[in-house]
C-alpha cells in the first residue's frame, strides 16, 4: 500500500510538462504489477487525482482497478468514474498509453452491457473514440464497441456521427470486420440501404485467408439488402478473397435460394420459399429484412412495367403486380412516386397511369454543386491512393520480393531495383 | 433536470431542431446514470422526430419508452398515433390523429405547425402524382371538407370539372437556377489539371 501512496505522490508531482510526463510514464510501467495486485483497493486513491491534469497516472490506476473483478455495488460507481474520466481526460496523455485506455473502455462497455444500460455508454464512448483517434480517418478498436452500444440501445441515429467519417487507416483487421458489419446493421435500421450495401460489401470483399463468422452473417444481409435495393445480387468482384469466393454460398444456402426465387418474379413461389426457411431466417434475426424483400417484389414488378409501357390502366397494373384491385394499385404507385422510385402521373378520370422519363436534366445549380462536390471527393481519394502507392513502392519488404522475382526472368534488362534489397 | 435547450427550440419555433436537441440531451443524462425517464418530455421528443419525417427514429424511441410511462401519459400515445399513420401511409388518419386529442399548452404550437406543414406536403404530392383526381380524394388527402378542398385547389390554380366531380391538376412552373459564376472556372481548371497529371 505504501508503494501506491508513493506512486500517487509521483503522479501529482510529475504531471506538468511533457518531459515530466514521460518520466512518470516509465515509473508507472515499472509499477504495473504492484498496481494489479492491489486492484480492489485502488478506488480511494483515484479521488486524490484530477483526471484532467493527472490523466496518465489516473489511467494506469483505473486500468488496474478495472482489470480486477468489480462487485455489483461498485459497478455503478465505476461507470460514473469512467464517464467522468473520459469527459475530462487530456487526449495527449491518452495517446501515450492507448492500449490502457482501450482496456478501460472495454471494461466500461462490458459493465454497461452486463447492467443492461447500453444507452449510458453511448455519449462517453463517442468522446472516447474522438480522444483516441489521431485523426477522423483512423479506425480504432472502440469504433465497433460504440456502434454495438448504439445497436443495443436502439439509438441508431447516434451511430451516424461516427459512421459518416471516411476511414483510411485500419490498425487491426478484426476492427474493420466488426465496424463494417455493425455499420451495415445501423444503416439497415435507418433504411439507408445504399450505405448499408457499401458497408456489407466491405466485409464480404475484405482480404482474409479463412472465412469468419462475421463475413458469413454479413453476406446473408448483403443478399437481402441487394434484393431490396436492386432486385438482384451482384457476383463477387475480382478483388474478393478466394476463401470468400469458394465458401460463402455454402454457408448461406437458404438466402441464395431466396434470391433465385426473387429473380423469377412470382410472389407465390417467393412466399413458399420464405415459409420453408422461416426458422432459419428467424434464428439469424433476419426475418424482418426478409419480409421487406417480399414487399419489394411488388415495386420491382411495377418498375419493370415502366420499361415497356408509356401508359397503362390501373387494372392492368393490379393484374401484373398481383394486387387485389385498381385502388390498391393506385396506392402502390402513389407511394412509389412519393419515394421517388418511379416517375408517373395518375389520371383518376380515365383510371390510367402515364409513365415519364426522369425529369432531371442535370443543368440546375443544385445539381452542378452536387457533381462538383463528388468530383472534389474523387480527386482527394485519387491523391490518397497515389501517395499510398508511392509509400508502398518504397517499402523494403515489397522491393525485396519484387527484386527476387525479377531475377528469374530478365538478366539483361536494366534492373532498377538496387541489389541492396535482394 | 435542465431541459432549457429544448424549451429554447420550442420558444423560437425551431421545430426541426427539436429532435437532435432531445437526442443529445437524453444521451448526456443517460451517461450520468440519471433516471431521466419520469420527467423526460417524450411527447415533444417523439413529435420532433415526426416533424423531421424521421419515422425510423420515432419508432425506436417509442419502443424504448417504459410501459408505465406510456400508460400514464396519454399524450405520448396520441403523438405516436400520428407517427403510426405516417408510417402506414394512412394519409387521412394523420388528420384524425391530430384532431382527435386535446393537446397540452406546451405542445399545441408544434402540433399546429406540423399540421400546416403536412397539408402543404400532401398538396405537393398530389400535384406531382396526379393529372386528374376526384374531389372526394382531394378532401381525403387534405383532411378538409369537400367544399374547402375545392376552394383550396382552385386557389392554387387547379380547375374543377363539376360534371364528374374531378379536379384537373395544374403543375406549378418550377424555376431552376442555371446561372454560372466565375468560381466555377477555377474549379474546372483544377479538374483539368488533376486529369492531366
UniProtKB/TrEMBL annotation, chain B:
<keyword id="KW-0539">Nucleus</keyword>
<protein>
    <recommendedName>
        <fullName>CSN8/PSMD8/EIF3K domain-containing protein</fullName>
    </recommendedName>
</protein>
<dbReference type="GO" id="GO:0010387">
    <property type="term" value="P:COP9 signalosome assembly"/>
</dbReference>
<dbReference type="GO" id="GO:0008180">
    <property type="term" value="C:COP9 signalosome"/>
</dbReference>
<dbReference type="GO" id="GO:0000338">
    <property type="term" value="P:protein deneddylation"/>
</dbReference>
<keyword id="KW-0736">Signalosome</keyword>
<keyword id="KW-0963">Cytoplasm</keyword>
<dbReference type="InterPro" id="IPR033464">
    <property type="entry name" value="CSN8_PSD8_EIF3K"/>
</dbReference>
<dbReference type="InterPro" id="IPR033205">
    <property type="entry name" value="COP9_CSN8"/>
</dbReference>
<feature type="domain" description="CSN8/PSMD8/EIF3K">
    <location>
        <begin position="39"/>
        <end position="173"/>
    </location>
</feature>
<dbReference type="Pfam" id="PF10075">
    <property type="entry name" value="CSN8_PSD8_EIF3K"/>
</dbReference>
<dbReference type="GO" id="GO:0005737">
    <property type="term" value="C:cytoplasm"/>
</dbReference>
Amino acid at each position: 500500500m505504501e508503494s501506491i501512496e508513493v506512486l500517487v505522490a509521483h503522479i501529482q508531482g510529475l504531471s506538468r510538462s511533457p518531459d515530466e510526463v514521460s518520466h512518470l510514464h516509465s515509473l508507472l510501467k515499472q509499477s504495473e504489477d504492484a498496481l494489479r495486485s492491489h486492484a480492489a483497493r485502488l478506488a480511494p486513491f483515484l479521488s486524490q487525482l484530477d483526471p484532467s491534469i493527472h490523466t496518465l497516472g489516473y489511467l494506469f490506476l483505473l486500468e488496474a482497478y478495472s482489470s480486477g473483478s468489480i462487485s455489483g455495488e461498485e459497478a455503478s460507481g465505476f461507470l460514473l468514474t469512467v464517464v467522468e474520466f473520459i469527459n475530462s481526460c487530456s487526449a495527449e496523455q491518452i495517446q501515450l498509453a492507448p492500449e490502457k485506455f482501450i482496456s478501460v473502455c472495454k471494461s466500461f462497455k462490458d459493465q454497461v452491457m452486463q447492467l443492461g444500460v447500453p444507452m449510458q455508454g453511448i455519449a462517453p464512448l463517442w468522446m472516447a473514440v474522438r480522444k483516441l483517434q489521431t485523426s477522423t480517418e483512423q479506425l480504432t478498436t472502440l469504433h465497433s464497441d460504440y456502434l454495438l452500444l448504439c445497436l443495443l440501445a436502439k439509438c441508431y441515429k447516434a451511430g451516424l456521427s461516427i459512421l459518416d467519417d471516411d476511414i483510411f487507416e485500419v490498425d487491426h483487421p478484426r476492427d474493420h470486420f466488426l465496424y463494417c458489419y455493425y455499420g451495415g446493421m445501423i444503416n439497415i435500421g435507418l433504411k439507408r440501404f445504399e450505405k448499408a450495401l457499401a458497408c456489407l460489401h466491405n466485409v464480404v470483399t475484405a482480404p482474409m485467408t479463412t472465412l469468419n463468422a462475421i463475413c458469413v452473417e454479413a453476406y446473408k444481409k448483403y443478399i437481402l439488402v441487394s434484393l431490396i435495393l436492386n432486385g438482384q445480387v451482384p457476383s463477387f468482384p475480382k478483388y474478393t478473397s478466394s476463401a470468400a469466393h469458394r465458401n460463402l454460398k455454402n454457408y448461406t444456402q437458404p438466402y441464395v435460394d431466396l434470391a433465385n426465387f426473387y429473380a423469377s418474379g412470382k410472389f407465390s413461389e417467393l412466399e413458399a420459399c420464405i415459409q420453408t426457411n422461416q426458422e432459419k431466417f428467424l434464428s439469424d434475426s433476419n426475418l424482418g429484412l426478409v419480409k421487406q424483400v417480399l414487399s419489394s417484389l411488388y415495386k420491382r414488378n411495377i418498375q419493370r412495367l415502366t420499361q415497356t409501357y408509356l401508359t397503362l390502366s390501373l387494372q392492368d397494373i393490379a393484374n401484373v403486380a398481383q394486387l387485389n384491385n385498381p385502388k390498391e394499385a393506385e396506392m402502390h404507385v402513389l407511394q412509389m412516386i412519393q419515394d421517388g422510385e418511379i416517375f408517373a402521373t395518375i389520371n383518376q378520370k380515365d383510371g390510367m397511369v402515364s409513365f415519364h422519363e426522369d425529369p432531371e436534366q442535370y443543368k440546375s445549380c443544385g445539381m452542378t454543386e452536387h457533381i462538383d462536390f463528388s468530383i472534389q471527393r474523387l480527386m482527394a481519394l485519387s491523391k490518397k491512393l497515389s501517395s499510398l502507392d508511392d509509400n508502398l513502392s518504397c517499402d523494403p519488404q515489397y522491393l525485396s520480393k519484387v527484386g527476387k522475382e525479377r531475377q528469374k526472368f530478365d538478366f539483361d534488362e536494366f534492373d532498377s531495383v538496387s541489389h541492396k534489397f535482394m | 433536470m435542465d431541459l432549457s435547450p429544448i424549451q429554447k427550440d420550442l420558444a423560437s419555433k425551431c421545430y426541426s431542431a427539436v429532435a437532435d436537441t432531445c437526442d443529445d440531451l437524453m444521451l448526456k443524462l443517460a451517461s450520468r446514470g440519471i433516471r431521466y425517464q419520469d420527467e423526460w418530455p417524450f411527447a415533444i421528443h417523439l413529435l420532433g422526430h415526426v416533424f423531421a419525417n424521421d419515422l425510423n427514429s420515432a419508432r425506436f424511441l417509442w419502443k424504448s419508452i417504459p410501459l408505465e410511462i406510456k400508460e400514464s401519459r396519454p399524450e405520448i400515445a396520441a403523438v405516436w398515433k400520428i407517427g403510426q399513420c405516417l408510417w402506414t401511409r394512412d394519409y387521412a388518419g394523420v388528420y384524425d390523429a391530430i384532431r382527435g386529442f386535446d393537446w397540452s399548452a406546451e405542445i399545441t404550437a408544434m402540433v399546429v405547425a406540423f399540421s400546416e406543414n403536412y397539408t402543404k406536403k400532401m398538396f405537393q404530392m398530389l400535384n406531382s402524382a396526379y393529372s386528374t383526381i376526384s374531389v372526394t380524394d382531394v378532401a381525403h388527402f387534405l383532411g378538409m371538407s369537400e367544399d374547402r378542398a375545392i376552394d383550396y385547389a382552385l386557389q392554387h390554380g387547379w380547375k374543377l370539372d363539376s360534371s364528374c366531380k374531378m379536379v384537373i391538376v395544374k403543375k406549378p412552373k418550377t424555376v431552376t437556377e442555371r446561372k454560372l459564376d466565375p468560381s466555377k472556372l477555377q474549379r474546372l481548371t483544377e479538374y483539368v489539371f488533376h486529369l492531366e497529371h
